[in-house]
Amino acid sequence: MTRFALLLFVIVALILPHHAAATIVLDQSIEQLAVTATSVVHGTVVSTRSRRTNGRWTTQVLVTVIERVKSDPAEITLLPTIGFVLPGGGDGELAQIVPGTPRFTIGEEVVIFLWRGPDSTNRLLGLSQGTFRVDRKGPAAESPAIAVSDRRQLSTFRHKPGTLPDSPTPIQEGVVVELPLTELLGRVHTAVKSLESK
Amino acid sequence: MKFAIIALVWSFLCVPTSALAYKVYTTLTNGQRAPSSCTLDQPRKLRWNTGEIPYVIEPVPTQVLSNGVATDAIIDSFQEWEAYSECNVPTLKFNGVKQNLAVEYNEIDPESNENTLIWVTSINEWGHSPGILALTTLTYSRCTGIIVDADIEVNLAQFDFSAAQTPPPHMTDIQNTITHEVGHFLGLDHSGVASATMFANAPDAETQKRDLEDDDIAGLCCLYGTGSPSVVKSPEMVCEGAPPQSEDPVMNNDDDSGTGCHTSRNPAPFSWPAVGVTVGLVMLWVAQQTRKAHRSAPKCLLFLSKPHIQPRDNV
Asked: What is the C-alpha separation between A49 and B106, in angstroms, rounded?
């Protein structure tokens, strides 16, 4: 029995919060992100490049498309790559950081929720909220690919239930959201179909 | 078994919800590594290296907030961070209300730069995706980590803010939001302490973040140093590795959080989680030893171990 208690104690110690937690974003579920996004893309990062315009750094990220889970109606020709802009970046001695902005490395597989702004530039919807990295390094060869969204640098803002009856109810899914890639893509497909049928 | 249960309960009681505390940004945050020309090879905390940080704010759009009240609320948000004399935090100087401010940094003419608070009232002017309430842009040296400019943007195009003492339930308190953003402005990341201003979540109408908690002050002292060790309020506030303001803020590589600052998760004198876990383990060990002793010891030992009563001398 003591061994059981010891085991329980160790488990308790391990599961006690280990996430540490400046951008404040509206807390949105995957379905809400899918509906708001102008395009949702599953792909691989092929390049990242910082540049400065008018004293402001941005980083241009280019992704080769594996699947367009949601297509932007404004895109007449669907190209094999899609680009988007992140706030922040750096060159020389100086850099700019907008906390909550994910960084991308060449070759990584991602699912990204993009929003095309009035200036026709694609941006990440909700910064880290709209970014899922695909982890295929499961313990077994047949392990399913996991999609991970790390939102630890984001502040989330929630409407109190019932205060805004016309707005969708945000669903907090945690600071590090992990789910099988197939489930993520399935939920996006379902949300998009539901939107199209309305 | 009784001991084991007590040990578990003790462990629960001693491991506080504030096991995860303040963090600070470093030159490694978001992967911005130092250029090869940089002679300093260690990552640095992002912090200001000046005694005074001036800031200006755009006129508050009157259709959204009462101008005078909101401006006061914003000044209060900045002043909250310099109200703690135990930390050598730079003075945050309000340089007035100015029109047409921008988020930018002019490297050619650094003196022309201003730290700004900007209101965006149209989604067409909001240079980010929708759903973002507010954000802070920090410009810093990738080599030294010294912040040279900070700008805060607030999304009035999509969100309703209030400057009232008690905000309506469906609105966002402007002072609550800006106090949190000023923490980022100074170099603080999010805290795991739910009551802290730098905690990452906020519901509608929250005002709790208007006032700093010990954890926020500890983070501030970590970044900017303390005036004297004698003014430290609590063990959690001790910031091992916090440099005096005159020294360079070198990141502490022993800190697994990568922040360069120790937090109340592992403060110098003692840590409540560590105490809780240690006491819990010791009690479990004692419970196990007691059971073993009960099993192996002859029963008469219990009798023999009773204290021998000596007859008292009458005085």
From this structure: 20
How far apart are the C-alpha atoms of B177 and B197, rounded to whole Å? 9
User: Among partner residues B133, B143, B199, which is closest to A21 by beta-carbon distance?
Assistant: B199
Task: Confirm whether B20 is domain-assigned.
Answer: no
Q: Is the Cβ pair A155, B202 closer than 8 Å?
A: yes
Q: For residue B161, what is the domain's CATH number?
A: 3.40.390.10
Name residues whose C-beta falls within 8 Å of residue B36's C-beta, 6 or more positions apart in sequence: none
Report the residue from A20, A117, A163 with minimal CB separation from B169: A163
Calculate how close chain A gets to B312, using CA atoms only, in Å. Answer: 44
Q: Give yes or no for a contact between B81 and B212, defined as CB atoms under 8 angstroms apart.
A: yes
User: Taking Cα atoms as reference points, which of B66, B169, B154 lies closest to residue A162?
Assistant: B169
How do the domains of chain A map onto residue ranges? 19-197
Whether B254 is covered by a domain: the verdict is no
What does the pLDDT look like over B276-288, one tens digit per residue? Answer: 555 666 676 777 7
Domain membership of residue B206 as a residue range: 37-191+202-214
> Per-residue pLDDT tens for B49-63?
999 999 999 998 865
Domain count, chain B: 1
Q: In angstroms, rounded to a whole number, what is the distance separating the alpha carbons of residues B137 and A116?
A: 21
ipTM above 0.90, yes or no: no
DSSP strands (E only) in B34-180: 52-57, 91-97, 116-120, 132-141, 147-155, 161-162, 172-173
Do the chains contact at A20 and B132, CB–CB below 8 Å?
no
Q: Report the pLDDT value the prediction gives residue A133, as an integer from 0 to 100.
A: 96
Question: Is B311 within the bounds of a domain?
Answer: no
Q: By the 8 A CB rule, do B235 and B270 touch?
A: yes
Query: Residue B283 falls within a domain, yes or no?
Result: no
- In chain A, which residues have pLDDT < 70? 1-23, 141, 157-174
SS3 (DSSP) at B247: coil
Q: Is A152 left (phi over 0), alpha (psi -120 to 50) or beta?
A: alpha
CA B96 to CA B91: how far, in whole Å? Answer: 15
A–B CB contacts, 8 A cutoff, strictly below: 211
Nearest to A2 among B1, B184, B277 (CB): B1
Q: Which CATH number fits domain A19-197: 3.40.50.1000, 2.30.130.40, 2.60.120.260, 2.40.50.120?
A: 2.40.50.120
Counting residues of chain A whose pLDDT is more than 90, the rounded percentage is 48
- A97–B106: do the CB atoms touch at under 8 Å? no
For residue B131, list chain A residues with Cβ-Cβ distance below 8 A: 25-26, 28, 36, 125-126, 129
Would you tell me the crossing angle of helices A2-15 and B2-14 to the nearest 10 degrees?
10
The residue of B39, B120, B128, B216 whose CB has the most chain A CBs within 10 angstroms, and thus the best one to mutate to test that interface, is B128
